[in-house]
Design a protein that fits this description.
The complex is a heterotrimer of chains A (about 325), B (about 325) and C (about 325).
Chain A (H helix, E strand, L loop, with lengths): L9 H5 L8 H14 L2 H19 L41 H37 L1 H16 L2 H12 L3 H10 L2 H15 L3 H8 L4 H37 L11 H8 L8 H40 L4
Helix pairs in contact in A: 3-4, 3-12, 4-5, 4-7, 4-8, 4-10, 5-8, 6-7, 8-10, 9-10, 10-11, 10-12, 11-12
Chain B lengths: L8 E14 L2 E15 L4 E5 L6 H8 L7 E6 L2 E2 L5 H7 L3 E4 L13 H12 L4 H14 L16 H12 L6 E5 L7 H19 L1 E6 L2 H7 L2 E6 L2 E7 H6 L4 H9 L39 H5 L5 E4 L2 E3 L5
Parallel strand pairs in B: 3-8, 3-9, 6-7, 7-8
Antiparallel strand pairs in B: 1-2, 1-4, 4-5, 9-10, 10-12, 11-12
Chain C lengths: L11 E14 L2 E14 L3 E5 L6 H8 L8 E9 L2 E2 L3 H7 L4 E4 L3 H4 L6 H13 L4 H13 L5 H4 L9 H13 L5 E5 L7 H18 L2 E6 L2 H7 L2 E6 L2 E7 H6 L4 H9 L48 E4 L2 E3 L11
Parallel strand pairs in C: 3-8, 3-9, 6-7, 7-8
Antiparallel strand pairs in C: 1-2, 1-4, 4-5, 9-10, 10-12, 11-12
Helix pairs in contact in C: 4-5, 5-7, 7-8
Classes of the chains: A mainly alpha (about 325), B alpha/beta (about 325), C alpha/beta (about 325).
Chain lengths: ~325, ~325, ~325
């Protein structure tokens, strides 16, 4: 009997076929079940969700005041527990503005700046990494040299130069952060491409006559995504810190809008005296969000590893 | 054989050398030297040898997938050695490859249907329903159900993946297929299915194969003609009968007697070939088999023996036998 | 269970009974080895043949009480000359000394940072208790025994400097260092070139004859079994489906799976007839049917086969099979 006369239903063969839901659903289910087992993962998700929620829905939440409304009689009201009232749960700043409202407003800026900057850096960096890794040769040398130069160039200095040239703005901060982190994606992407491009499916595609663009887009990029997403989250934490630093230096968002970095800058004169809470809450917000994002990326990384390991075990049953 | 018929694919004196860093030194790997072979339409040529003998390089050379140091590759009598990148791309419709490792040969992030559809996307205008139908037809041709197209490779076993790889290779009806250790990674019961499938497809679709393998038994089963390689040199080439019933080169003889036959009644004393395979970075002068050959004479260490015809179509490169 | 090993002259060395090894997975516990029974006699070469996923390698490790976590031995007994090897103390005494093991990839077993000589020295000091010049003497003797030319030079080599065949010889030398009575060889020639495989098999054959070492040869290659072993057991899905002396197995296989395997292998010494093959694919371990695991691929299957796995029964003198279509001697 020959195999061709005996078409086997692959589903009947492995049992993983017809009954299995589409891959995206199983991956989500896997992700969820893996998440419940990880305390760090849960903490990361919770912190990040609160952050995003505050940033997106903040102004519409009840009891949240206008972050720019000044009220000099209420200036430097301490938080609840230190003689303050629930009117200003976290107290007020030197101009009588509600700290909680300003933190939430600052979250919007943080999120906007960091996410936009990381997306720009990731897209730019990944494309360059793909091209450098796959095409190789002189183009590779050129891109790698550019990345090395960028690595050695301090981001703050770049920021200073641009602010001197164009004046401070949020968009400038986004661009500065993006150009000081694209090379991370380039380096990681290029390294992965070096391994992936020796795989037989890339050779098969080349032998089928596929163009370089097609191979990079269809075969290499999809296999980079999971690693690069983890990297994005990690870079997000760095971007949040950078944004705060730039705001602190006065390069970014301008008063009366608020930003965590700006709050620290404005509150630093009151740290030792009668306004310790301004710096403290802004600093805590930064620390907690950066911690949360790092936890999330750590967990994503471990999930990727486990998924890959299981994949290998499932695919290659040993003797 | 059939020198009158224009071979489908032919290589003439092809050499492939490349350099590789070993520690801090750059060394030349002599992967393939003066390799000449012709595959006639509808013929299966088996290419056998041990690791480092250059058989995979030879297969890739015929597909224009490696840079030749010297020599020519002809397709249907036309020299394609120096074709431009664009023209080689058009050639891809006619020549294809099946790989050893079906796990690495399919992109894990693409559905099976998408992988099989790729040749159509690159070379034809088939899209949508028409493309789906073509993919389904290919899947059925290799003994799978059409529903496999919507699944990802991880849902399939090694044998099923190899069927998918074959379907992709045959998508555009190539005349010539290089099968590089196509069954080496499979279990015997699955290997038999794939071998049978390849034989059937050869008849039904009209294919020529270059069947590269270290497995002499599978090659015997598959091939019309067989070529035996050692360290980048062709040692002996002849019909299936010439090689298996009347092996003439001492290496061919040693290789054949080294294969364990799955039949205890064939047990007998034979002297295993001595020594290790030399490195292709440092091949011996003269006949490359001279370090292990029980018959080697002085001439074998000085001059490379040419391939000489012993009987019609049976060529042997040996000074002694 | 009566003896199947040897022919009366031999002493029974290894007795494995109902060995079961389980691996916890998301879909419940999967049995890698399921109720396996096996005996090896002295001066015997027993082959265990099976395809990937048949559990043959798991079995080889489990015999020495070594199962990779999270897998664990769930039942059964392993006795070495009557002693329980699953007992840690006994295992430590026997493992690497009376029973040695060699694997497919010697790089895994050889220390990449130490020379061949250093590894042999350590072994001979610790396990055999040799001292001084006796160590060097014995090391050279061992390398010579496994057919390594210039053993003096090779003692100074690192594993990565050696060819695949040479590494396998070194691994055999380390296995022989303690004068084992049984050598478990797990795919020792897989991945080697044909001519090198031939050398290694010949070496193992000569050593087992000259030194009187029994060999348990675990392999997927029916050719290796046919040329090397006295007796063979065929495994499928963690169970033994057939056991027979070598000549009978190849002349007249009783289990449909053994028969299918034999008809799947092309032969280098005979002109091509069509390969019969076995239809279908090996099952996913989590999806085993309640009955015979081979039933979905079996041409002879009937309703009884779907109810419970057939037991391994004696069907003739020295022949055993686990198939409802091959009733045992008792029920004939």
């Amino acid at each position: 009997m020959t195999a061709v006369e005996n078409p086997m239903d692959p589903a009947a063969g492995t049992g993983t076929g017809d009954a299995a839901p589409p891959e995206s659903v199983t991956v989500m289910a896997e992700l969820r079940s893996h998440l419940w087992k990880s305390k760090a993962g849960i903490s990361g998700i919770v912190i990040c969700s609160l952050f995003v929620l505050a940033a997106v829905a903040g102004p519409w939440l009840p009891l949240i005041k206008d972050p720019t409304k000044q009220s000099l009689p209420d200036r430097l009201t301490p938080p609840v527990g230190w003689g303050g009232t629930w009117a200003h749960p976290l107290g007020t700043d030197q101009l009588g503005r509600d700290i909680l409202a300003r933190l939430i407003d600052g979250a919007r800026i943080s999120l906007l700046v960091s996410v936009t900057a990381v997306i720009i850096a990731a897209v730019l960096g990944t494309v360059l990494g793909l091209v450098a890794g796959y095409v190789g040769g002189k183009i590779d040398t050129l891109i790698v040299s550019a990345a090395d130069v960028q690595m050695a160039f301090p981001g703050v200095l770049a920021g200073l130069i641009l602010v001197a040239a164009f004046g401070p703005s949020v968009w400038l901060v986004i661009i500065v952060i993006a150009i000081s982190s694209w090379m991370v994606f380039t380096r990681v992407g290029r390294g992965l491409v070096f391994t992936l491009k020796t795989s037989l499916y890339v050779e098969a595609s080349e032998l089928a006559g596929a163009s370089s663009r097609r191979i990079m887009w269809r075969h290499l990029l999809p296999n980079l995504v999971s690693s690069l997403i983890t990297l994005c989250v990690l870079e997000l934490a760095a971007a949040i810190l950078s944004e705060s630093a730039f705001a602190f230096l006065g390069f970014g968002v301008q008063p009366p809008r608020s930003s965590w970095g700006l709050m620290i800058q404005q509150g630093r004169n009151y740290v030792t005296g009668d306004g310790w809470w301004i710096v403290t809450f802004a600093g805590m917000a930064i620390a907690i969000v950066v911690l949360g994002v790092n936890l999330l990326s750590l967990w994503l990384q471990s999930f990727n590893d486990v998924a890959e390991r299981e994949q290998i075990v499932l695919e290659r049953p040993g003797g | 054989m059939n020198q009158q018929v224009t071979p489908l694919v032919e290589s003439r004196d092809v050499s492939v050398h490349f350099s590789r860093w070993v520690g801090s030194r750059r060394r030349t790997v002599y992967a393939l030297d003066d390799f000449s072979i012709a595959v006639a339409p509808g013929e299966t040529v088996g290419l056998v040898g041990e690791s480092g003998c250059g058989k995979s390089t030879a297969g890739r050379a015929l597909l224009g997938a490696v840079k030749l140091t010297k020599g020519q590759v002809l397709f249907e009598g036309k020299d394609v050695t120096n074709l431009s990148r664009r023209n080689w791309r058009a050639m891809r419709k006619h020549v294809q490859m099946i790989f050893q490792d079906p796990y690495s040969a399919l992109n894990p992030k693409l559905k099976v249907g998408e992988s099989i559809a790729e040749p159509f996307m690159v070379h034809t205008r088939k899209r949508g329903k028409e493309l789906e139908a073509a993919v389904a037809e290919l899947l059925e041709m290799v003994g799978m159900t059409a529903s496999a197209a919507d699944k990802y490779p991880h849902a399939f076993s090694g044998g099923q993946r190899q069927r998918i790889v074959i379907a992709r290779a045959l998508a555009l009806h190539p005349g010539f297929v290089v099968a590089d250790e196509a069954t080496a990674a499979l279990d015997v019961s699955i290997q038999a299915q794939i071998v049978n499938l390849l034989v059937e497809l050869k008849e039904s679709v009209g294919l020529s194969y270059l069947f590269i393998s270290h497995n002499l038994a599978v090659v015997r089963h598959m091939s019309d003609r067989v070529a035996i390689m050692y360290l980048g040199h062709l040692m002996e080439i002849g019909s299936h009968h010439d090689i298996y019933e009347n092996p003439t080169h001492p290496y061919s003889q040693a290789l054949l007697s080294a294969v364990p036959v799955p039949d205890p009644t064939t047990r007998g004393d034979h002297e295993p070939l001595k020594g290790d395979l030399p490195s292709p970075m440092d091949p011996p002068k003269g006949c490359r088999f001279n370090t292990r050959c029980p018959l080697a004479v002085e001439q074998c260490f000085e001059e490379r023996p040419p391939l000489r015809e012993r009987s019609s179509g049976h060529l042997v490169a040996c000074w002694v036998n | 269970m009566s003896a199947t090993g040897g022919d009366g002259r031999t002493e029974r060395l290894l007795e494995v009974k109902d060995l079961t090894v389980g691996f916890p997975t998301r879909d419940g516990t999967v049995l890698g080895v399921d109720g396996l029974t096996l005996n090896v006699g002295s001066h015997e070469r027993l082959g265990v043949v099976g395809e990937s996923g048949s559990g043959k390698s798991v079995m080889g490790l489990a015999i020495l009480g070594m199962v990779l976590p999270p897998g664990r031995i769930m039942g059964g007994s392993v006795r070495w000359k009557g002693e329980n090897v699953l007992d840690e103390a006994v295992a430590n005494r026997v493992r690497g000394r009376e029973i040695a093991m060699i694997f497919q990839d010697p790089m895994v077993s050889l220390n990449p940072l130490k020379t061949v000589g250093a590894q042999l020295r350590e072994l001979l000091q610790r396990r055999v208790g040799l001292e001084g010049s006796a160590i060097k003497q014995r090391s050279l003797e061992l390398l010579d025994m496994v057919g390594i030319a210039n053993p003096g030079d090779r003692l100074k080599s690192y594993a990565f400097e050696l060819s695949g065949g040479m590494r396998q010889r070194v691994m055999i030398a380390t296995a022989l260092a303690c004068d084992p009575t049984l050598l478990i060889a797990d795919e020792p020639t897989t991945g080697l070139d044909v001519t090198i495989q031939d050398q290694i098999l010949t070496l193992l054959h000569n050593l087992s004859t000259e030194l009187g070492v029994s060999v348990l040869m675990i392999t997927h290659d029916l050719g290796v079994v046919a040329q090397f072993c006295d007796r063979v057991q065929v495994m499928y899905a963690g169970r033994i489906v057939e056991r027979a002396p070598i000549a009978q197995m190849f002349a007249d296989p009783q289990h449909p799976y053994s028969g299918g395997l034999l008809q799947s292998v092309p032969r280098v010494d005979q002109a091509a007839a069509e390969l019969a093959g076995i239809p279908g694919e090996p099952l996913d371990r989590a999806q085993f049917p309640p009955g015979c695991a081979f039933e979905p691929r079996c041409v002879e299957a009937h309703d009884t086969c779907r109810v419970a796995p057939p037991p391994l029964v004696k069907i003739a003198e020295r022949r055993w099979a686990a198939c409802y279509n091959r009733p045992g001697e008792a029920s004939k």
